[in-house]
Prior knowledge:
With 477 residues, the chain is an alpha/beta fold. It has helices at 12-23, 35-45, 57-62, 78-87, 105-117, 130-136, 146-159, 177-207, 211-221, 229-239, 249-252, 262-273, 278-291, 293-299, 312-348, 354-360, 371-381, 392-415, 420-433, 439-450; strands spanning 5-8, 28-31, 51-53, 69-72, 96-99, 121-128, 139-142, 162-163, 166-167. Strand 4 (69-72), helix 4 (78-87) and strand 5 form a beta-alpha-beta unit.
Amino acid sequence: NKASIGVTGLAVMGRNLARNLARHGHTVALHNRSTERTRDLVERFGSEGTFLPTSSAREFVDALERPRQIVIMVKAGEPTDAVIEEFAPLLEPGDVLVDAGNAHFADTRRREAALRERGLHFVGTGVSGGEEGALHGPSIMPGGSKESYASLGPLFEDIAAKVDGTPCCTHVGPDGAGHFVKMVHNGIEYSDMQLIAESFDLLRGALGYEPAQIADVFRTWNTGRLDSYLIEITAEVLAHTDAETGRPFVDVVADQAEQKGTGRWTVQIGLDLGIPITGIAEATFARSLSGHTGLRAAAEGLAGPRRAPLSGAAAERFADDVERALYASKVVAYAQGFNQIQAGSAEYGWNVDLGAVASIWRGGCIIRAKFLDDIRAAYEAEPALPTLLTSGDFRKAVEDAQDSWRSVISTAVRLGIPTPGFSTALAYYDGLRAERLPAALVQGQRDYFGAHTYRRVDRAGTFHTEWATEGRPEHPA
Ligand code: NDP
């Protein structure tokens, strides 16, 4: 009796993924660099299914049915390369190595190409949902070859989250496609979290609400179109009281947001591909700004407007306005993220199905939301949709929200409440729909100082103005 799959790297994620597989009736071979983790898993959870614990790479590989399927769940970066080098020499052509850690997609492309030369399938897989997701059903985003998905897919679909019976797992595309999509997922997650945080700050700053009251507002929103995991947990965090001080939990937490790097990758790749993912970028920079304690201390006392909370009709309307602004900004953030996936897919020839991506994000992952079903429907109706903003229902929702959106941002500006996420989302919307952009002037400036040339609206070709002569006002053209 051999195992249909093996997991190496049994920290929180690997352990829970292995348990999830075993709970679904699959025999799982176990391996970890230090054997204590393997022993611990079997001692505590051995009764949940059939595990084959092993204490060496050789023993692990021998415990697996052929073609072997090995899920690597170790610290991303060099440890992943070390583990690949440990196992690859023991494997045979057709075996499948899966990296389910948070690898950079470029590393995945490199590893896939190298292992393909050696006859092995290498599958970079995004896994989202944290440790709870890994145990109860994550969203799984595998890349790699079609052949590898034929054997791996059924196992992964079995343990993935389900929405309306559909597994939150699909073959995203070749080589690094899975990790790329996971990266953008995390970027969107940054953006979504920032927008929700700004909504909280606005409700507090403009209405003077307490965190517990704001928790109620979020709970109400969570019954409507904003229904999502992130809104749900936000309400819980805001309602939480610090046991030690009796103060709202959110007021005793240091206001410096940390990051592990996937948001930064998303922004870097957005720049490389030339895709304006401004919502993700602002969210990432907002975390950086929060962390610059020295800079913030130096800026303390810089003058701002006098803050008087809203009152009367404006106050009554405000929470609804924020809901609309949040929704519209969120549509922009997702529109940008999906455009980035579209661009990555074109650049690397992945042929990613955006509707399928939206579908597997509906459950299991951190950005799971009702809203993603609408995105799925939009891309299913029009796979080459240029932007979600022009798709039927989204278009109408954002157009209907725009007065509120503008009013909320005006209020924020007037009260001096920073809303980088809301503001950049609206600027993107206005930028896209503008008939003429001042980019024309930028082209003129570039031509003036650098002879970079420009194109004209009235005829084809490339033009340059001799600014030293033709450009002078006393020298009409
Ligand atoms: P960690 O990232 O903390 O990694 C610990 C595991 O890596 C241990 O099993 C450890 O073995 C092993 N390891 C580290 N270095 C080496 C090495 N040089 N050779 C062999 N094994 C090594 O574990 P997590 O479970 O938190 O995450 C695993 C992966 O999943 C990471 O890539 C992470 O980014 C990703 N991920 C994590 C999520 C989360 O919510 N935590 C969510 C989604 C993805 P040992 O016990 O011997 O030290």
